[in-house]
Amino acid sequence: MAESEQRLGVDDVDVSVVWERLATDPSARLIDVRTRAEWAFVGVPDLAAIGKQVLLAEWAFPDKRLNPHFTDQLQSMLGVHGAGRDADLYFICRSGVRSRAAAQALATVGYRACHNVANGFEGPPDNERHRGRIAGWKVAGLPWSQG
């Protein structure tokens, strides 16, 4: 991990560890930064079993433009859900790339415990270029729902 990432508090955390921390830390939150289309057609993590809900905040739009209001929107959501600047925040996307950038963006505005969910919701592509077979939230058998 680069020194600047350590300073910003962004690290990669395995999905099973994320689930455990979400279940045991009342202030911890999961933030899904994928697009609305991904949430609708691919599914979202389901935290109902641990009495929480996923915060949905688009980091970028389907045309790849970054959401210019991301940090403001997310800070507002976090306030509504009682997550302060010291709360453990776990960012998830499809594979862990966008979520890392989103976590770093929130860390730059003063959130001290931003974490990237390693391998994201679907993980990397396999030899046949299909996701959801090697690693990630779905492969780990963690709860999720679709549509």
Relative strand content: 5-15%
- Second CATH tier, the architecture: 3-Layer(aba) Sandwich
Major sheet size, sense and barrel closure: 5 strands, parallel
Number of helices: 5
Unreliable sequence segments: 1-7
Fourth-level CATH superfamily: Rhodanese-like domain
**Number of discrete domains:** 1
Structural class: alpha/beta
> Could you please say which CATH topology applies here?
Oxidized Rhodanese, domain 1
Provide the helix percentage: 25-40%
Record the strand order, biggest sheet.
1-6-5-2-4
Q: Give the radius of gyration.
A: 14 Å
What's the CATH class, please? Alpha Beta
Mean pLDDT: 93
**N-to-C SSE series?**
HEHEHEEHEHEE
Question: What does the model show?
Answer:
This protein has 147 residues and is an alpha/beta fold. It has one domain: Rhodanese-like domain (Oxidized Rhodanese, domain 1, 3-Layer(aba) Sandwich). The chain contains five helices and seven strands, in the order H-E-H-E-H-E-E-H-E-H-E-E. It is globular. The relative contact order is 0.22. The N terminus is likely disordered.
Describe this protein with a few key phrases.
two-stranded antiparallel sheet, disordered N terminus, globular, alpha/beta, 147 residues, 5-stranded parallel β-sheet
Would you summarize the structure shown here?
The protein is an alpha/beta fold. Helix content is 31%, strand content 14%. It is globular.
Which SSEs are present, and which pair or pack?
Elements: H1 3-8, E1 11-13, H2 15-24, E2 29-32, H3 36-41, E3 44-45, E4 55-56, H4 70-80, E5 89-92, H5 97-108, E6 114-117, E7 144-145
Parallel strand pairs: 1-6, 2-4, 2-5, 5-6
Antiparallel strand pairs: 3-7
